[in-house]
Fold this protein.
Amino acid sequence: MRETLLFAYHGVAVYSSDIKSLREGHWLNDTILGFYFEYLTHDILRGDSSIVLLKPAVVQLLQQQTDLNSVLQALPPDLYKHEIIFMPIGNGTHWSLLVYCRQAYPAPFHYFDSMANANFKHALAAKLKLEQILFGSQQLPMVTHSCPQQENSYDCGVFVVLFADLLVRRYADLRLPPKMPAQVDIPRAVAVSYPAPGTIQRPMSPFAQAAGDGPGFDIFQPTALRAPVIDRTFWWIDYGDLFNPNTARTMLQQLVNQMQS
């Protein structure tokens, strides 16, 4: 049976078969995971280039490729200039999340796994290769975080989406300048129709909107973005911070449907 291309989004082609991975009981595939990372990059992080989310295929190269030149060709240019890098770690049956953050002292690497440390050796392989690219032979500390755990064998990819979405939003919010009282009360319709010159309107992610975290968008000047202060509480993720995996699947399906319309 011939595949049906549903849509293409910044280099990610989503086919009808990929949608099946959003159903309950299915393992989220690399296409859907890569699509959501691109969505965060180009929609939710619009106007902020300090954050980079690597595609699953690129991270696979970090884990497995011994030829450093091949890896460098696949990575975004000037990777060392980015402040925080998100990496989905996959082994073919499980997903987890590795994050590098320049401002996180004393440990710049942070690891989140919804199935204990099932992917630790794969995360370590990606970490060592990234260190080689960014710093030469220097090895830096990595913190393995206690985080919400999946109750089955297939929700790992959904947890990676939820972990990444939450941490991306936290970091992006810390980068925003303080809001003036007048900004807080701008009616949505007016702000959307008449943006101030030099400003960027950035929508909130579906999960932020569903949680009621603000009016559904941020308005800011890119030149006003500031360097965030990252403390240990930044990395804390509790069950109350996340949506139920099945609810998250439904929300991802709704986003995919919007992309097709």
